[in-house]
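Comment on the following before class.
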Amino acid sequence: MELLPAMSIAASGLTAERMRLDIIANNLANVHTTRTAAGGPYRRQVPVFAERLQEALRREQAPGLGVQVAAIVQDATPPQLIYDPAHPDANGEGYVAMPNVNVVMEMVDMITATRAYEANVTVLNAAKAMTLQALQIGR
């Protein structure tokens, strides 16, 4: 097993999961944002992961050299309508369109992203330990 590709794959996973955690933090920070520059309430963002194929094909290796964030898309779930006629963003009927961010779902996503990040760190540490042991064989 080659260790450098394994480290590259784990590093790509670290980068992708860090981006996922940043997006989750942004979603949680905007859980009460009812007015955006685009108009309307904040829309939950979701990262779309994809396999890094182009880099693998350029190097003429087998596909599967990691993961990347291919896009960041908005969740299509409609906004929640809350009755609050005193709110400045209330419509004529007194309802406010709130962001489609579910705090519980974001926390679950945060836990899974953290676990995936930890798994990639474990892979990097194992590859580093194997490299050090291989270097000691030649002594």
The two ends are 21 Å apart (CA to CA). The chain has one domain: 3-137. The first helix runs from residue 3 to 29.
